[in-house]
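Email to the structure team, subject: Sporulation protein model.

Hi all, the expression group asked for a predicted structure before they design truncation constructs. Nothing fancy, just the tokens so they can compare against earlier work. One-line instruction: predict Sporulation protein, return tokens.
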Amino acid sequence: MLLVFPLLALAACASTASQAPRATAPTDTTLRKPTAAVASAPMPAEDVTKYRFVFPAPKALTTATAPLPKTTVAPTNQVNAPVEQRLRDQAYTNQNVKYTQGYRILVYLGLERDQVMAIRRNIIGRYPDETDYITFKSPVYRLYIGDYLTKLDAARGLARLRGLTPKLELEATQVLLNKNP
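Reply from the structure team: attached below.
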């Protein structure tokens, strides 16, 4: 019994050994067009015309009738008075909004007032249209630049200021809306 298992293992190995190469052509895997015998296969004998919907033939158009002339209609007021009043009220309310959620660039965070003022002068000298905010919470000074409504605008501003200071950060905060274009 003990000799049976090694003999079976040896026989299995011998059957999987590499054999001499055969001279056979590889199988053809290209797509072939169907032959005429397959293409002309008979259609089923079942009649399906009784299931098809039949549309009535269109009526013949007479050429004796002339096309009607196009008339233009003047536009009328599409919005009624209560809706106009509500739109005016909403516009008035929107004029009173001063702040919105946006982004500012934190340019400086430190303890030295002289350094924050030097960085501020450097940035305002190069970009005078940017607004700056210096906050002081004892003993820390913070210098913020800009009022950006979108993160994309803030990232562009950050790229402009990249070489002026060693550390820049975007901070989400309430920003002042500029109503004057």
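The beta strands are 99-110, 132-137, 140-148, 169-176. The chain has a mean pLDDT of 80. Ping us if the truncation boundaries need rechecking.
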